[in-house]
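S.,

Sequence below, as promised.
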Amino acid sequence: MLLLFTSFSMVSQQKNSVVDSTSTKQLDEVLLSATRTNRQLSSLPLPAQIITNNQIKQSGALRLSDILNEQIGLLTVPDFGGGVGIQMQGVDAQYTLIMIDGVPFIGRSAGTLDLNRISVNNIKQIEIVKGPSSSLYGSEAIGGVINIITENKKTEKLLGHASFRYGTFETKDSNFNFSFGSKKWCITSGLNTYMTNGYDLDESTSTKTVMPFYNLTPHLKFNYTFSEKLDLIISNRYFHQNSHVGYESSGQTYSGFAKTDEFNVHSRLFYKPTSKLNFIYEVYKTQYQTKEKTNSDLNGELISQSHYKEDLLRNELRSSISINNVTYTLGIGYNINTLDRTYFSEEASNNSLYGLFQYDYNVKDKWNILAGARIDKSEIYASAFSPKLAVNYFLNKYLSVKGSVGFGFKAPDLRQLYFDFENPAIGYIVLGYNVASQRLEELESQGRIDAHYVSSDFFSSKLQSEKSIGYNFGFQLNKNKLKSSVNAFYNSINNLIDTKVIARLTNLQNVFSYYNIGSVFTSGIEINSTYQLFENFQIAAGYQFLLAKDKDVIKRIDKGEIFARNPETLETFKLKATDYVGLFNRSKHTANFKTTWQIPSLKLNHSMRVTYRSKYGLLDTNNNSILDKYDVFAKDYFILDTSLSKVLSKNFEIMIGADNLLDFTDSQNASNISGRTIYGKIQFNF
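The prediction came back faster than expected:
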């Protein structure tokens, strides 16, 4: 039964020359993110995949979250700030690194990077590497890496396209892209606008679930070839969003606005003195800034006002040299990261130096051994060392076995180090680790401290990075019309940063700060396959089984320290190990099923995708602070998407489609799923 199922899944890993909306893997596809050198995807010893431009186009996706949610092992989840993040192999969204052309997006104001701010316009491919990747990319890569590769067309004539899409909720998406140049230089530029009237999943409230907003994303890339050995690429991207803010509380309504501005400037100089040796020098500057203001609808009184401004400047030099069957890579870089936000007493900064090394031994169609390490040294947190080892071995020309072990880390973010917040209504205080000691002294001198709950030397050492170790082991089969992969994984994350009561105020409220405690694990198996049923018809399917639990909770249950109450009998009893479900917002079972049908005689392409998520729990409903089988769970659901495109002529294409055709909604647990949306699109190519 398992073998039968696996024959239907990895279309998310194969590229078709005509149109392939679900495939993500092909023998001659090249991936950069896994090794920071161009590598053939099929030979990599790591669990990786590519989502092609054709897939994105045929799926009808508009934002990055749309296309990622259709991949096995990835799950989009809403965060409490209104954004959408991505879980990878059950690892929380804040531990997945999101990049564009190899450099990171910033702006994790609540810990999660909002994928909805990233348009799929101008994307050449999306590269996904699962498992700890800190040996190449440093902090935030505990769960894995998602790298967006943008278009870099070289043409001596004007090429481009313009498109417009209109759909449910008055959603409008417009794109205009063009490229032109000469033998020496080329310019690629474009503009995306996206606006929606929002949607409402709960008619009992006076405000919408998602308020109206407007996005603007222009981009410009300049490529200049000095010689066969020297190339320069300068990329610029800007993102602007205006959005309405509205909510209801205690019978009162409040409204306002939020504004977001982001820019990225990325310069890369490529020097290749010989066919075996190359150097890459990169300079990356990015800024992410938000402002939000809320007023009472009753009397116009200012209720809240906040700001967030983060900057990152990175310089990096890398070099690779190939000797026989080995490629050696060395790199060194320096980050300057600053953050000014509401509830910071002053601007915070984090400057860090890093170096990396990689050994890549590759015998075509036989062996690949990949070993590397990176060390990060910061001025505000303890140094981190992140090694990695991966092996791929071809048993025969059809079947390979691969395994990897890697260490990852996530540095304390500036919020956890410098936050200084006092709730004026309730009276509690939250302090960042690096400011807590001084602020406690100030509160003591003001006579506001009633009791201390930590020793005087509690803050004497640096807050430690969260650290992980991840194992992946699997098989990959590529034979005739069948392509399949099976991957088992285990991720253990230690030194988790959590909040702790450090003092009690005289008003009997608490003072909180951050500290290292606890560990969790995620483990499971992924199955992906694709089968070319007919010449123009592909079937694909995928499945993930996941366990995600807190190791400390397991120990406490074994000691008989955790209790629960039966909701029917109200009886209180000790929990057993089998009663513990695991981490919040994780589903044990997720699956997808996809078909792609091409009709060349009619110039038609049809895509159908079904995704499934089993039940999951978001809240502790019986007051024991864990998720057990006596809690309330969100129900399982299916999402059905379909699209049909037709080429009318050399210059014109049209598409119609429907997302969430079954009209699933859950206002309490899945606010990021809007209900059924119908759309139409027209595109002009030139």
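The chain is about 5% helix and 55% strand.

Coffee later?
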